[in-house]
Recover the amino acids of this structure.
């Protein structure tokens, strides 16, 4: 009786161990691949954000250098006005993020402006297709007849298609130039129509234009109602640091903040401010649409 029980226990133990190993395997073996691809994903995110902000000609190294220079300059000025080392360090770190915030704001503004452009662009494309032009020629006409905001990008398509004659490659170049999720959807629809054919392209594009107009109207209404939450978050984060800056100009306050407890208060306040601001922005702003077809 003992031998079957021991064998059963060993079998159950082996099965449990094998199950645990299989459950943990996605987190164990692909780790090196994820670590290797993490820098490339970061570079792609920064590149897409610069492109979406209209700075496609700015290199990532130059952007990093500008961020460091801005951080050092602001930190030096703050330390000269209020000789508190932790405050100057916090100001330098915060100022180093200002270029990224400026690019993010530009990208968001361009994306909001393009929401009203894309339905009109799709309408131009439908008119070109219905007039009998081939699909590549219809897309090329957008460089001249489309909305002014997108003509440069489709000029890149026209130039690329004339050079290579490859529709897919030219579409990829336009997607990289625009770095917009709505553009990705429109261009992937055109790519699919080019590859598999079909007579329903104009119907699909009209439905897409109608959906884009409805989505833009809904987003505009919701963002108008929730903008006060974002403004309140900005005011709530800025106010304590303005008060701290005024206090740090006094010699006795500067001496107090240069001590380890004072430094801990400033570092803790910086961490709390960042977390609170991110939470308030997440509550008061609609999530940005991701580029699923990038």
């Amino acid at each position: 009786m003992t031998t079957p029980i021991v064998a059963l226990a060993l079998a159950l133990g082996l099965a449990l161990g094998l199950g645990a190993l299989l459950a943990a395997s996605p987190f164990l073996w692909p780790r090196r691949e994820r670590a290797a691809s993490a820098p490339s994903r970061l570079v792609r995110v920064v590149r897409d954000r610069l492109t979406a902000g209209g700075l496609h000609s700015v290199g990532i190294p130059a952007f990093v250098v500008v961020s460091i220079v801005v951080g050092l300059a602001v930190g030096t000025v703050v330390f000269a006005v209020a000789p508190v080392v932790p405050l100057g360090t916090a100001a330098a770190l915060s100022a180093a993020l200002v270029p990224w915030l400026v690019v993010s704001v530009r990208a968001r503004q361009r994306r909001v402006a393009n929401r009203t452009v894309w339905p009109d662009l799709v309408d131009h494309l439908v008119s070109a297709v219905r007039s009998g032009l081939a699909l590549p020629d219809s897309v090329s006409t957008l460089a001249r007849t489309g909305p002014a905001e997108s003509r440069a990008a489709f000029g890149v398509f026209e130039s690329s298609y004339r050079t290579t004659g490859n529709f897919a490659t030219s579409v990829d170049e336009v997607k990289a130039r625009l770095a917009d999720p709505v553009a990705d959807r429109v261009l992937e629809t055109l790519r699919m129509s080019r590859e598999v054919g079909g007579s329903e392209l104009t119907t699909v594009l009209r439905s897409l234009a109608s959906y884009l107009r409805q989505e833009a109207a809904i987003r505009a209404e919701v963002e108008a109602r929730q903008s006060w939450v974002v403004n309140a978050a900005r005011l709530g984060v800025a106010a304590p640091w303005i008060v701290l800056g005024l206090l740090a100009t006094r010699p006795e306050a500067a001496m107090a903040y240069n001590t380890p407890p004072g430094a801990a208060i400033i570092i803790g306040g910086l961490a709390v401010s960042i977390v609170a601001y991110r939470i308030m922005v997440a509550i008061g702003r609609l999530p940005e649409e991701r580029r699923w077809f990038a």
